[in-house]
Amino acid sequence: xxxxxxxxxxxxxxxxxxxxxxxxxxxxxxxxxxxxxxxxxxxxxxxxxxxxxxxxxxxxxxxxxxxxxxxxxxxxxxxxxxxxxxxxxxxxxxxxxxxxxxxxxxxxxxxxxxxxxxxxxxxxxxxxxxxxxxxxxxxxxxxxxxxxxxxxxxxxxxxxxxxxxxxxxxxxxxxxxxxxxxxxxxxxxxxxxxxxxxxxxxxxxxxxxxxxxxxxxxxxxxxxxxxxxxxxxxxxxxxxxxxxxxxxxxxxxxxxxxxxxxxxxxxxxxxxxxxxxxxxxxxxxxxxxxxxxxxxxxxxxxxxxxxxxxxxxxxxxxxxxxxxxxxxxxxxxxxxxxxxxxxxxxxxxxxxxxxxxxxxxxxxxxxxxxxxxxxxxxxxxxxxxxxxxxxxxxxxxxxxxxxxxxxxxxxxxxxxxxxxxxxxxxxxxxxxxxxxxxxxxxxxxxxxxxxxxxxxxxxxxxxxxxxxxxxxxxxxxxxxxxxxxxxxxxxxxxxxxxxxxxxxxxxxxx
Length: 510
What we know:
- By secondary structure, this protein is α+β, with helices and mostly antiparallel strands.
- 52% of the residues lie in helices and 17% in strands.
């Protein structure tokens, strides 16, 4: 017989160790050399902080002696900083993948950093992914590239234009950038803004006959000015980190200008659609349409912003998770508001009533004044306004009087109990003639019928439709018909019954 044994202590220790290993995050490099882009950014930040002892850890100087490292390490870091800051090197082009760019036709552990042309020859600097320990791999400037830094640094020389400037403008730096470049960028930005404003104004002026075109002036001005400034950065580049910030800012501005133009186009199309709507469908034009436009434009701006942030290398999953949690919190806090909102959507979508309709809701009657997203407003016959939450209004039994195509006319004629059969026949015939002479009356096969013997009367029912949906017209026709029906009763020699008259005891003559 097979007997079960308890799990031994070594097995439990092994399982527990496996769980800890699975839950322990992979070690990260404290210097931030996990990806090619982060390695370059951290190197530049260390250099700009004048922490060149830290910056040397980004250079693989294993082929140099310890004496040369201490002697030339800081110099090499400064020279590489100059190369990256004072040329057209772009940090944004570096890969953000820990594995590097796998499609650059280089070995998997090699990444291109920059290429400089010195004396007609290309000097290429590269990064290499090295294994610090079995669980940590980092990117560093390769030993061969470290040896070429001094050679590549010869490409940096004072330009003929800088020789014409006062020496203070060339030597004095702000954010590791000569001050003359900042002055030039500010002047260029102002010039491009003026030119962009003039071009946008001329464009709008030329197309002024097109409705909605003036609203495109703003996004067009922003797009042209930012695009011109972005091009100017290639000719007057600041140092790497400020250039990265300006490039990202200009890219964001260009994206916003494009989305802004799309939003203007949406507003223009919505106005044209609104102009063609039925005036009675004001619930759509005043409530749903503006809300839908705002949601659409907000979604466009949000998508554009998230796309730009993702292009910058920041994870957007955390942002989306935060929006999801925030949305749940808002939904719980505004439960009644959301309930009314969906009630309004139900009323607007199902359209049991429209603005201007007369309806009965619950025990009251009123004219619909406005259907909003939170409540519906109705004007009562007393000329007061009742505001009913949409969650309640959508669940009510609504009777729409304005939706009638014709109105039912069905009075009951209660003739005196002593009316003879001959008089009754005359009443029926006369009433049929009255109805037949009215062109708006839609009569069936038996519009006037003798329906029963009441306790004190003979009951004659009139059952026809008046072919009109206008309440005022119906009231006029109804009044005319009632008068003619009373006259028909009088011509027959009888009258309508009165309950008290049937039970009255005659007083004998004195």
